[in-house]
Design a protein that fits this description.
Mean pLDDT of chain A: 89
CATH architecture of the largest domain in chain B: 3-Layer(aba) Sandwich
Helix content of chain A: 25-40%
Structural class of chain B: alpha/beta
Order of helices and strands of chain A: EHEEHE
Shape of chain B: globular
Distance between the termini of chain A: 20 Å
Largest sheet of chain B: 7 strands, mixed
Strand content of chain B: 5-15%
CATH class of chain A: Alpha Beta
Number of strands of chain B: 13
Oligomer: heterodimer
Helix content of chain B: 25-40%
Number of domains of chain A: 1
Strand content of chain A: 25-35%
Number of helices of chain B: 11
CATH superfamily of the largest domain in chain B: Type I PLP-dependent aspartate aminotransferase-like (Major domain)
CATH topology of the largest domain in chain B: Aspartate Aminotransferase, domain 2
Strand order of the largest sheet of chain B: 2-8-7-6-5-3-4
Order of helices and strands of chain B: EHHEHEHEHEHEEEHHEEHEEHEH
Low-confidence stretches of chain B: none
Distance between the termini of chain B: 19 Å
CATH architecture of chain A: 2-Layer Sandwich
Strand order of the largest sheet of chain A: 2-3-1-4
């Protein structure tokens, strides 16, 4: 697994959703990290999940398979 | 010292539980779900891990459908008061703890119809009596999984099957069984499972919760409290997603760190192993007590469908006198009286005097049982 150059983030409504996604993504061996929400993106739970933009389909699948509610996905 | 009050709260706790509480307090300390810094995130991870481990233990579909509460009483209140309205019919048993009975009696005053199905004197229940009681407006069936007075396990799987067939929600109070008996949301047909963290799950007091099955439409259960959740802070209206819908205010994360360690301990050891160990102690205790003249043991005489809770009395001696002697002269801690379960004591014929109750855990030994039986024997003979 290599670090891709571009990163994206999932913005969640709650920390529990973010941590659940982190846990499931790590189980699949994806490189993810919970980080404070960048200032130009809005959210109030304070954290979002960053991932390699190449993994977007895998992340989207995790979100939909597990019915995890999220606000949006942005490229950083 | 012999601690036989595990049905009230378990003691001792596994050392892993104590270590987890110390570790959290010393090294993490932050509030989960409220901030973006790494200590808050770490606290959030522990909260999630605990939900995940609970989901494994109860075969729950989604860790986020597990709500943390102060105790099982709060979880039961959440369902009863959030779900039942005037004109609804609710079915329960005559072996319930006041954690179920009191909220129901309170709701009864507001026009909720409460029907209590009688159990036999050993605490057992016929599922068909539940089925016969179902009416058009029956909204909920609520049962304890095991009695805190007799240790009798109720046939939740059969009752759950009836509830599912008739499209009625089924709430189970697992205060005496979570961690001590296998429980499975799917196989046992449970919609709502209320648990306590500080008994069989070995967490500290102040922990407990509610598992909400996939079959439950959460919009039917109004939250009994609302407030800060760390989510959707821009809104003055409460969020409608789980677990935030039912979790307001800072969580008991120190306690949950300990609870998480307790559940891990149980998952590693295996619930079947724990149950077997407890049943071996229970069997030894029941046969020992039954061999003493003037002693009456209540509940089932065998260990089938039972937990490690045994109630007894000595002829012409009050439970409180026996309890005091056990504590002061034999260094044995137990609980006497009505155990917050007047209905159960009426069912087994021990109201209003109550019984002496021994509640064991895997940290008790055969030696504890031998000493306890000997102590009861001496008290029954009038020695000391």
């Amino acid at each position: 697994m290599t670090e891709s150059k571009t990163k994206s983030v999932v913005i969640f409504y709650s920390t529990s959703g973010a941590i659940k996604t982190e846990s499931l993504a790590k189980k699949q061996g994806l490189i993810v990290k919970l980080i404070p929400v960048p200032r130009h993106l809005s959210s109030d739970c304070g954290i979002c999940l960053s991932f390699n933009s190449d993994d977007i389909q895998k992340i989207e699948k995790i979100l939909s398979d597990n019915k995890i509610e999220f606000d949006d996905i942005y490229d950083l | 010292m012999i601690y036989f009050d595990n049905a009230a709260t378990s003691y001792p706790k596994p050392k892993e539980v104590i270590e987890a509480i110390i570790d959290f307090t010393e090294n993490i300390g932050a509030s989960p779900g409220r901030s973006g810094h790494r200590l808050s995130i770490e606290a959030g991870r522990i909260l999630y891990q605990c939900r995940d481990n609970l989901a494994k233990m109860f075969n729950a579909s989604d860790p986020l459908r597990i709500i943390f509460t102060l105790n099982v009483t709060e979880a039961i209140n959440m369902v009863l008061k959030g779900l039942l309205h005037t004109g609804d019919h609710v079915i329960t048993s005559s072996m319930e703890h006041n954690a179920v009975m009191r909220p129901l009696r309170e709701l009864e005053k507001t026009g909720v119809q409460v029907q209590v199905i009688p159990c036999y004197t050993d605490g057992t229940l016929e599922p068909e009596y539940i089925e016969k009681a179902i009416k058009e407006n029956t909204t909920l069936i609520v049962l304890n999984h095991a009695s805190n007075v007799t240790g009798t396990v109720l046939p939740i799987r059969s009752v759950g099957e009836i509830a599912r067939k008739r499209n009625i929600l089924f709430l189970v109070d697992t205060a005496q069984t979570a961690g001590a008996c296998p429980l499975d949301m799917e196989n046992d047909n449970i919609d709502l499972l209320a648990f306590t963290g500080h008994k069989g799950l070995f967490g500290p007091t102040g922990t407990g919760g509610l598992v909400i099955g996939e079959s439950v439409d959460i919009h039917r259960i109004a939250p009994i409290k609302t407030g800060g959740t760390g989510s959707r802070s821009e809104s003055e209206n409460h969020p409608d997603f789980l677990p935030d819908l039912y979790e307001s205010g800072t969580s008991n994360i120190v306690g949950i760190a300990g609870l998480n360690a307790g559940i891990r301990y149980i998952l590693k050891k295996g619930i079947k192993q724990i149950h077997q160990q407890e049943m071996s102690l229970t069997n030894k205790l029941i046969s020992g007590l039954m061999g003493i003249p003037r002693v009456t043991v209540y509940g089932k005489e065998n260990t089938e469908n039972r937990v490690a809770v045994v109630s007894f009395n000595i002829q012409n001696q009050s439970p409180s006198d026996i309890g005091l002697k056990l504590d002061e002269e034999y260094d044995l801690m137990c609980r006497v009286g009505l155990h917050c379960s007047p209905a159960a004591h009426k069912t087994i014929g021990t109201f209003p005097t109550g019984t002496v109750r021994f509640g064991m855990s895997i940290f008790n030994t055969d030696g504890d049982i031998e000493k306890a039986v000997m102590a009861v024997h001496k008290i029954a003979k009038g020695e000391k």
